[in-house]
């Protein structure tokens, strides 16, 4: 009975952590979705994010305590820096019109940058979970599921909002990315 309660507690903790980490993908997906994405692109971007939400905590779990302490603070700065650059680029691009091409999250490199930016936190959490010897399969599958689900929801919501914002969608999406990047840094 005690072991069952312990496993249930571990499951609840992992699900809550996975949902919390998926909120980054949700929030930033709104910003990307506001630029206008097709359903096929929503699925493709979300699958890449889900994959990164599996790989990053897996790498974090295997990395261990020492590297977790070393990268714990740097991970937030790297993630924040990527988001600030992407957000600023999107805002400048919207002001200049077609003269300057924004980083496109629908391209392979753009998807990787976006997925990496919303998954860096999963690496740090994975390091912590590795120290506590959590259930490896349950952890990475929950993180991947919630990362993918939350990104689909965010992209779809952003997509709906973009129809009412018109030309301001790219600038608003860039502002969302820029704001989250600054939050990660500071």
Please, could you describe this protein's structure?
The chain is elongated and about 60 Å long. The protein is mostly helical and 186 residues long. The longest helix is centred in the first third of the chain and has 32 residues, at 2-33. The chain has helices at residues 2-33, 39-63, 65-96, 108-131, 136-165, 169-185.
Short characterization:
Helix content is 86%, strand content 0%. The N and C termini lie far apart (44 Å).
**Classification by helices and strands:** mainly alpha
What is the oligomer described by this structure?
single chain
Distance between the ends: 44 Å
Helix fraction?
A: over 70%
Total number of helical segments?
A: 6
Identify the notable features of this structure and list them briefly.
mainly alpha, 6 helices, elongated
Write the layout of secondary structure elements.
Layout: H1 2-33, H2 39-63, H3 65-96, H4 108-131, H5 136-165, H6 169-185
Helix pairs in contact: 1-4, 1-5, 1-6, 2-4, 2-5, 3-4, 3-6, 4-5
